[in-house]
Design goal:
DNA-binding; 5-stranded parallel beta sheet; alpha/beta; homodimer; 215 residues
DNA sequence: TTCAAAAATCACCCAATGGGGTATTGTATC
DNA sequence: GATACAATACCCCATTGGGTGATTTTTGAA
């Protein structure tokens, strides 16, 4: 079985080089080459890649946005971000967009092939400089650990609705008006939400909601 | 120049094996082997390592705690965490304690040597499985980046004191008692603190205080 | 189908919190 | 001496948090 790789890369030289390397190596097929992310959905559907090699900096839709979208619609596709950036902000945005690995643009071809193979097999290749930034991010910080899997707080639909309005900054009275229920009922829902989220104030609840995408 | 490596590891077999490998390889010296972290300060001062190889699971002080302490007192020493854990919580605690790299216990000796060399030269080696957990941590999360440097909020001493008591969970009344001032004065201070921190609730203030070490 | 559990609704009480203002005193600093 | 600021203290009032109890509706399981 060959690994099907799609390339998103605005630089034609790099694009062609990557395509040549992939097609010239046993075990890899380049199933699509795209200069930007503007038609990503069609591109992905028609090329059916196993792995996407994504450039961060592209005209139109950025690689970060495209990564986010592919990740949403085709979560089974692994995305390998290639970057030249020393820009922490971009790196962390890319991390949050849900890529499977990070490789530097000036890594040699064999590193590229290794990394593609690694993500395809469920691994998570990270280039040294990205790894350093990531470790630096955690170092001496109290990162709030949201143990994955326990993000289901069993909020009812109504409770989610109320929480959403809280996140938007409404007070009890306006929430009551918007939801067509009484002030006291809003308060009851909020109390239940607090219990389920294990928090004791509006701001904590809002923070948890945003961090965990509950809103 | 040889790289001086100190080993913290409770398993004698592993400990001896690592020591033998290090002393048997050109470029590396094992300057100390310790079965636990109970005397870490003396151990570090006397062995003067460049790199510490740290086991997470140790009797007495855990590797995470010792890492934190070494990082506080001897920030120039690089710490390479070795772990068998699949335990996300431990991994992230270790990440936050400020280690420089992460290696798996069942990695082969040459990986160990490579990793030691890498951290010594300012790199950040991460084993595949740790990398995966780290990427998973960021995936699809809105990680809040606290821009370092803007942490001076010009709180007065009294205000810091009050904030500290707030972090400890005291309410206005007990803060008033502990500080020998009136309830209303506490409220005034709290209002000033909120303005200076640009927050609007106790929990936000406490969070900011903890994140930025203001308490 | 019936019964129990959970969700959604509403109400009342009370304490704590947050935001606004005002005011006095002392201590710097200019 | 004037100005600024910290620390102290009090007032009013809206909002929030926590507890208790109740009715109705929905849902799921026996």
């Amino acid at each position: 079985m060959e690994i099907r790789v799609a390339i998103f890369e605005d630089n034609k030289l790099v694009r062609d080089a990557l395509e040549a390397i992939l097609n010239g190596t046993a075990g890899y097929t380049c199933c699509g080459v795209f200069a930007d992310g503007n038609h990503w959905e069609n591109d992905i559907k028609r090329s059916t890649p196993d792995v996407v090699l994504m450039d961060i900096e592209m005209p139109g839709l950025s690689g970060i946005e495209v990564t986010q979208h592919i990740n949403d619609l085709f979560p089974e596709i692994k995305i390998l971000i290639q970057t030249v950036f020393n820009d922490s902000e971009k790196i962390f945005q890319a991390l949050c967009a849900g890529a499977s690995g990070y490789i530097l643009k000036n890594d040699p071809p064999n590193k590229y092939l290794e990394a593609i193979n690694e993500v395809y097999n469920g691994g998570a290749p990270i280039s040294a400089s990205v790894a350093k930034k990531v470790l630096g991010f955690f170092a001496n910080k109290n990162v709030v650990l949201t143990s994955p899997g326990s993000t289901d707080y069993q909020l009812s639909d109504r409770e989610k609705e109320i929480l959403h309005l809280m996140v938007e900054g409404h007070n009890y009275k306006t929430i009551a008006d918007k939801s067509f229920i009484s002030y006291e009922t809003v308060r009851t829902h909020v109390k239940h939400i607090y219990r389920k989220l294990h928090v004791a104030s509006r701001s904590e609840a809002v923070m948890k909601a945003i961090q965990q995408g509950l809103s």
